[in-house]
Amino acid sequence: MTLYAFLLLSVISQHTLTMPTSTVGDIAGAGEEEERYPDITEINKDLDLHEGDIMLPSGGARNTILGDQYRWGIPVPYVLDESLDMNAKGIILRAMEQIRLKTCVDFKPREAEPNYLFIIEDEGCYSYVGNQRWGNQSLSIGLGCGHIAIIEHEFLHALGFWHEQSRYDRDDHVTIVWENIEEGKEHNFEKRSASQTSTLGTPFDYTSVMHYGKEDFTNGNGSTIITKQPEYQDVIGQRLDMSSNDVLKLNTLYNCTSAVTFLETCSFEDIQECGMTLSASGNASWERVGSVQEGPNSDHTKLGPLWDTDPVSVDNSTTFQNETAPTSATNMSTTDSDGGFFMHYSTATGKEGDGAKMESVRKTPRRQFQCLQLFYYHSGGDQDLLNIWIREYDDNNPKGTPRLMGQITGPPASYWQLHHVSLNATKTFQVEFEVRKGAGPSTGGVSIDDINLSETECPHHTWQIRDFENVAKNTDTWLFSPRHYSRDGYAYQLMVVLRSSYIGVYARLLSGKYDDQLQWPCPWRQITFLLMDQNPNIQLRMSKQNSISTDPEQIDYKNGEKYLFWDIPRKNGTFYKQEGNDSIYATKGWGYGYFMSFKDIKDKGFLKGGDIFFLTSMQDISSLQCAGNNLLPCPTPPPQDFTPLPSKQEEGPYSASLFDFSSGLVSTPAIIVMALMLWLIH
Hints:
Elements: E1 7-9, E2 21-24, H1 40-43, E3 76-80, H2 86-102, E4 107-109, E5 116-120, E6 125-127, E7 136-141, H3 148-159, E8 174-176, E9 225-227, H4 244-253, E10 262-266, E11 277-281, E12 287-289, E13 319-321, E14 342-346, E15 355-359, E16 370-378, E17 385-394, E18 397-408, E19 417-423, E20 428-436, E21 445-454, E22 461-465, H5 468-471, E23 477-480, E24 484-485, E25 491-498, E26 502-510, E27 525-531, E28 544-549, E29 555-558, E30 561-564, H6 569-572, E31 574-579, E32 582-586, E33 589-597, H7 598-603, E34 612-620, E35 661-662, H8 669-681
Parallel strand pairs: 3-4, 3-5, 5-7
Antiparallel strand pairs: 1-2, 2-33, 6-7, 8-9, 10-21, 11-15, 11-35, 12-14, 13-23, 14-21, 15-20, 16-19, 16-21, 17-18, 17-20, 22-34, 23-25, 24-25, 25-26, 26-33, 27-28, 27-34, 29-30, 31-32
Helix pairs in contact: 2-3
């Protein structure tokens, strides 16, 4: 196997560690230094801001979060200033989407509201606390601040939050090491009094995105904060996402409970949780089970970090480049001791065309786009089908109108896989999961688990890296995703570099089949790569993500000659590989030399069954260049190529209504026989 080494080149700026860097192929000597992102206090170190990133009203008066006058009306109006970096604009909109998904707080572009957030690029990252009610209230996302958790941090200030470690009860939970604080910065560790702030009835939160890091404002002699629960010492200051307590506090502060874009989650652990209705055509139905002999042997919800399997090879979608091959998997515990449940339909018996449906409760959308996410395990036949339908209802059509939105078929696999289906319901609707037994033999069936439904845009692509914990032992290995295509036809690829204790992540353009029809250099497409926290509830996830954008005027140098970095790969790129008659060329990579440590990947729920998932999207953000444009167009589902279905598939719930069950009841043969006898009697 050919060894490709890469040199990581820093962007020249005052915040090199937090900005993207490029990779250059065929140059040996890639560094091993761990490049961590600077946090807010480091980015703002030359600014004289209260507690590092808080702007105080003139005169230094400290407002509180106690008065209703400091609350914003919902939705919160905002303006994206022209001074903002284009990449930052896209990430700001993503941060708003995260807040909508987890909380009741919404945002809207300002129309004529007198008070609004004026989001600018000034020096550093900062915000006022609460609504100051003086018109355009500045919130700065300056150079180096373009990370989703930092943006969330500043938005939470604007919505009324102080820092977590400034709570009046903080001394019960942390110790401030005053002798380690930089001279003149001691005031940043003052506590808020009970007359100034409220804990909102929530416990102290070491995992809050509003907490200082352990070495913030240090004079170099050690930590400035020591947690009284030692296991949280390396947790404080996390910059992944809002914690569950951050969400609880924000909903409590704004006196609401339901999130703006969240619709449903279901992991089948509680038979009453999901409210599913089951129906069948044939002698089998969906069953709620804890394991299946042919696989899976556990649910996904409680799957452990490594799966107890035979040695695993990485799937064909992942390409390696290193001098050593990945090692095999080690047998480890598969699940938590109590196990869990999932829904399974067996295609091992019955005839071709037999099937079953599982129907969700009805939902009324606020938006015209939704995303369905589910884990599935396919142990059946090659031609078995899992069809994803939506059925929309109105007063004129009480039976509903079905539309096929997604389909899973193909060869079986011995592991859980992740799937997304883009929906576009505009009326009250329900989701239907339909299995159809195909032609040919089957010894297993189809299983699903950990369903999430939200009014958000689906990620465009999923990259599952198998057996990651063992793959990660191969230092200086580069992993390459399959060639992805954006919705408008640009080809790109994700690259992960494995260092001794952390990973770096980059993206690059590849030559593709639509290149002759596209605009070059690639104009303002934002590539987002998200390493997914595998918590079954999407609202509780604290995933890690970064974004880069293709600036069509970005310059680089090759052999002493400058060129446009994001130009067509066949023009300035290098040969990558041959696929049939297609010679694929690649640009340099652009991304982050330090993305996440192996420790965090293992400890924070990113690894299940030995696998990790990168979710990627390439989004057109070019419209944000226009002055006054504060939104992106609504997404639409991508074109689909489904296996043709007989017309009876669209007739609605199966006519054998005696198979309808509620809230996760399991349809066993005994139940079916009893129901049939009752039907014959009547």
